[in-house]
Amino acid sequence: MHQTNPPRPPSETMPTMYDLPSEDPNDPDLPEQFHPRSPKETMPTMYDLPSELIGESGLPDEFHRIQADGLSQTCQPQNWQPDEVFIASDLNLYYDPRHPGWYKRPDWFLVLGVSRFQEQENLRLSYVVWQEGVNPFLIVEFLSPGTEEEDLGQTVRRVDRPPTKWEVYEQILRIPYYIIYDRYQNQLRVFRLNGTRYEALSLPDGRLWLEEMQLGLGLWQGSYQGTVIGDKLRL
Fold it and tell me: What is the DSSP letter of 172?
C-alpha cells in the first residue's frame, strides 16, 4: 500500500525572518528602490545640458540685444524683492523632463519667485524647469521674418519634431503672459492664458498693465545706449 507523506508544517513552508523585509518600507532612510528620488535629484542639471543654441550661433542681432537690455533695466516689480525675480534673454529654457534635451530659447523671459542665482550660488547657464520648480511668468519674443509663423502659433508640429514654441508656452509650461513685438510693423501683441488657451488682449492705449507685478508694459520712443530708437518695448 502506497503511503503519502504528511503535509509539512507552516514553520517549514512559510517565509522566515530571513526572507521578509526587516525594515519599515516607510522609513526615509531606506535605499532608493523603496523611495525613488525626485526628478530634481535624478534629471540632468544645467551643468549637464547644452547652454548654446545647437546648430546655430545663437547670437542675437543688435536690435535684439538692445531691446532685451532695455526690458531688463526697466523691469522693477513694485511688489517683489529684487532677489525674487529672475530675468534672462537668449537663454536655453529646458521644459520637459520626459525629453530632457528639448528646449526653447526665448528672446526675453521673467520668472517670479526664484533667486537670481541657481541654488543660491551660481549664475545660470540655462533655465531648467524641473530643477527650478517654477515656470516663467512672462515671455517676450521679438518677431523676425524667419520665426514669425512659429512665434504666432501658425506652424503645425511634425510628429518627429519637438513641440512648437506656441505649444510649449501655452500647453506645457502654461506661461501666463506671452508677448510678441513686431518692430517691422511696430505692432505689440499680448496673449494671456485663459483656461487652457491663449487669448489676444486688446491694447487700446498700446500698453498692458500687469497687476501681479504692479508694472505697465508698452512702446517707448527715445535714445537708449547712444542709439535713437523709433519705438522700443519697455516696462
Answer: I
Least Cα distance to 108 among 124, 90, 84, 86 occurs for 90
Q: Which three cell numbers stand for residue 189?
A: 501683441
169 contact partners, CB below 8 Å, separation of at least 6: 104, 139, 175, 178, 198
Expressed in angstroms, the distance from the first to the final Cα of the chain is 100
Question: Does residue 3 sit in helix, strand or coil?
Answer: coil
- Give the Cα-Cα-Cα angle 16, 21, 27 (nearest 5 degrees): 155
d(CA 167, CA 181): 19
Query: DSSP character for 76?
Result: -
User: Half-sphere exposure of 151 toward its Cβ, with a 13 Å CA cutoff?
Assistant: 20
* Strands lying side by side in the sheet with 227-234: 207-210, 215-224, 227-234
Q: In b/e form, how buried is each residue of 47-86, taking b as 16+ CB within 10 angstroms? A: eebeeeeeeeeeebeeebebbbebbeeebebeeeeeeebb
Query: pTM value?
Result: 0.73
User: How many CB atoms are closer than 10 A to CB 197?
Assistant: 9
For 16-102, where are the E strands, in sequence order?
A: 85-88, 93-94
Residue whose grid cell is 531648467: 128
Q: Quick: pLDDT tens for 47-105.
A: 788 776 555 544 556 667 777 887 888 888 888 988 899 999 999 999 999 999 999 99
Judged on CB neighbours under 10 Å (0-12, 13-18, 19+), 114 is middle
Sequence-ordered alpha helix ranges (H) in the chain: 10-13, 39-42, 62-74, 129-132, 148-151, 165-167
